[in-house]
């Protein structure tokens, strides 16, 4: 007789931690030879509930490069992790972090993006970060490209639209793989690669002057070059450091059908397929048939080199990672839209919303974990999940029960997914320390367990203050996810 059995708790080796990005925390934008990045020429948003960000074109880039301040470009200042990294990592260690996700700023290593010789001061900075992590036995999880690339590559060759950028990127990855060999077990290629369909911030391609169909063609062409570069980097890593693992990273936007009307169900399926397409290529090694049809029917022509398909097939990723903030609703007929994490969809009347209009759906995390496990059968890693909120500093303390409640509900659903049989490697909540918001470039949208004394204009002491959630997450990690009270 068949006897069922299933895991009942988080695995002992589960990787608890937090996630950041260089362009949102480091600051020191013009220090030690670093070049200007694409993230540092995007002006701060005017409306916190609009996720479209400001348009980047040749004119705005010229204005940004002539402006040597951080007033309109807060990502240039971050929260000065560049000079506070020892203090910050010590705080992460106090919480019990098993892993810390951060990104390498490509322009710290190659300021122009295409030099032959690396900037030694840039390599040395990340050596120092790794030294601190090793002191506390914290695993690094490094993203190679997190919404920033050397701006010079946009100016010279329009970013990832030019195939030469593949060689520039893979020269960079070869250098960092060799330099940090044996010190980093887990790598990610491109952060939320699917958001490249929204344009400049992910691809470095200036295309705002093009018509919609031309834009779509350009963006998928640039993304094809990224997919090829990701496969080459994966092969490099396996050859240079065989013990290390490469993952892909998706902005997961689980899509619900607005009704059970078949046309709505089909529309939701199409949205989900377009979301998962990128992970399909990186995890399975080939373009799925449904996207080939989509390209054909929408006049999208992707130029491939003769060996591209073979490159993709030979080097699929070792694990699949994703961000999860919200779900969306899709119908065959456009309805009221909700913005969030570069995503728009119909409003779900059953869900609450954050101060920024992002709909909160913990059960959706369990749903997407099951669907992605069934689809890929590769280890999964939740590398972003969190709540941006308006925290208040009261008598030197921050009482953020709303954040604790949000995280508790999502971790409970993670545990249910593990019981369902999902192989989940770890969880790095987004923004363990307050940082500059990606979408709006403001400080007011705070995610962290650690408060940073800095306002939207950059005023403040940069003092780090533990929130109530700091002590709660410490308890969660110590109990390996058992004590969520």
Account of the 3D structure:
With 485 residues, this protein is α/β, with parallel strands linked by helices. 39% of the residues lie in helices and 15% in strands. The strands form five sheets. The protein has an eight-stranded parallel β-barrel, surrounded by five helices. It has a two-stranded parallel ribbon with strand order 6-8. α14 (401-419) links the parallel β13 and β14 (424-430). α3 (81-95) packs parallel to α5, α7 (164-179) packs parallel to α9 and α9 (212-240) packs across α12 (308-314). The chain is globular and about 60 Å long. Keywords: Glycosidase, Hydrolase. One of its GO terms (biological process) is carbohydrate catabolic process. One of its GO terms (cellular component) is cytosol. Belongs to the glycosyl hydrolase 1 family.
Key attributes of the depicted protein:
Glyco_hydro_1_AS; 16 strands; alpha/beta; 8-stranded parallel β-barrel; TIM Barrel; GH_1_N_CS
Short account of what is shown:
This protein is of the alpha/beta class and 485 residues long.
Spell out the blueprint of helices and strands.
Layout: E1 15-19, H1 22-25, H2 58-66, H3 81-95, E2 99-103, H4 106-109, H5 120-135, E3 139-145, H6 151-157, H7 164-179, E4 186-190, H8 200-203, H9 212-240, E5 245-252, E6 255-257, H10 262-284, H11 289-297, H12 308-314, E7 319-324, E8 328-330, E9 337-340, E10 343-346, E11 352-353, E12 359-360, H13 362-376, E13 380-384, H14 401-419, E14 424-430, E15 450-452, E16 464-466, H15 468-478
Parallel strand pairs: 1-2, 1-14, 2-3, 3-4, 4-5, 5-7, 6-8, 7-13, 13-14
Antiparallel strand pairs: 9-10, 11-12, 15-16
Organism: Liquorilactobacillus hordei DSM 19519
Protein name: Beta-glucosidase
Active site: 384 (nucleophile)
